[in-house]
Amino acid sequence: MSGNKENLEASSFSTPNRMVWQYFETLRRLVRSPREPDDSIRRQNIALCIFMGVTVVETFMNVFFRVAVSEEGRRRHEKGFLADLDHRRSLDYKIRNWPSKILGQEIDLTSGIGRDFSTLKGKRNSLMHFTSTHDTLNIGGLVINGTANTAAFDDLVPDDAVFALKTAEGIIALILSMNGATDKQLPWAVQLWTGKVPLES
Question: 138 forms bridges with which residues in the sheet?
Fold first, then answer.
């Protein structure tokens, strides 16, 4: 085990999937909260669902691929993967490169769940990187300068929260299937990483 005694004493060790589970529990709790009657609080909770939906996918990728590159047959990717972590590669880079390099399959971001994830990330970016449009409004001769277009926030609806959860679960399921999980194994692999209980058949 690497690291000195002081570092070990300051550490808290868990299984690789623990943080992914924690973030999914947070996301699922938030998905239930958009029923909040106050419009402003409801939109705040939906926005948090969108943030968490993207965050949990990145967390999953960081820990899942860390496990993957330590496995027999994939250790040749470990050095490059660790360099990517050290360089704090963007989520866009990770989603476009790690599955193809390490799993030998590319995620199609133009259709299906890949497109949904791109849409979710776009919603997250419009909220997280919000800037004022600094528009000028003329209402019946009254000129108002420097307004901001807040439609990205004001147009949020509870379905956006559900979309964030389903998309996060879906892109993780896709990566797990790329890793070799069969249709029968996939619900249990998803449960292992996300805490989603498989539906009874």
Answer: 143
